[in-house]
Write a structure and sequence with these properties.
Layout (H helix, E strand, L loop, with lengths): L19 E7 L12 H23 L4 E11 L7 E12 L3 E10 L2 E14 L4 E2 L4 H9 L6 E2 L1
Parallel strand pairs: 3-7
Antiparallel strand pairs: 1-3, 2-5, 3-4, 4-5, 5-6
Length: 152
């Protein structure tokens, strides 16, 4: 099995890989009966980072389109307990014709606790079909993502 995190040549566990950040407080309800943050909560933190970046892209380029999640991969690296602040770095690692692969690192106290890759697909809400990623959106994604980023 190949490592999907190695494919893009970006160390998603390195804070220097990100120019775009947001923070989420770890809530008591995020913790499971073992006393650590539940895997589902990590998916929600990742969603928060993606949504914040997509909203920033829309603000920068004035193009608002919908996105659907096509794939989500999370690599859990370390235990997190309540209370904590989750710092979420988000970037594009690949900007394609109809989709963007977003890479993320989740950090607590400067330590990477999880990494994520998500394929988000540009979507037209009226036709209910995929669309090409608009060029201004591609450019804004690239502007918020340090190199290397694959653009096709």
């Amino acid at each position: 099995m190949t490592d999907p995190f190695a494919e893009f040549g970006i160390d998603l566990a390195d804070p220097a890989a990100y120019a775009f950040w947001n923070e989420e407080n770890v809530r008591f309800s995020d913790v499971d009966m073992l006393g650590h943050v539940n895997n589902v909560s990590y998916a929600a933190y990742c969603e928060s980072g993606r949504v914040h970046m997509i909203r920033e892209v829309a603000t920068r380029c004035g193009v608002k389109n919908a996105w659907v999640l096509g794939r989500l991969t999370i690599d859990y690296g370390a235990e997190v307990t309540f209370p904590a602040v989750m710092r979420i770095g988000t970037r594009a690692v690949k900007v394609g014709t109809k989709s963007v692969t977003m890479g993320q690192g989740l950090f607590v106290d400067g330590r990477c606790v999880a990494r994520s890759l998500a394929a988000v697909i540009a979507f037209d809400l009226e036709t209910r079909k995929t669309i090409a990623v608009p060029e201004p959106v591609k450019q804004a994604m690239l502007a918020l993502s340090p190199q290397p980023t694959v653009a096709v």
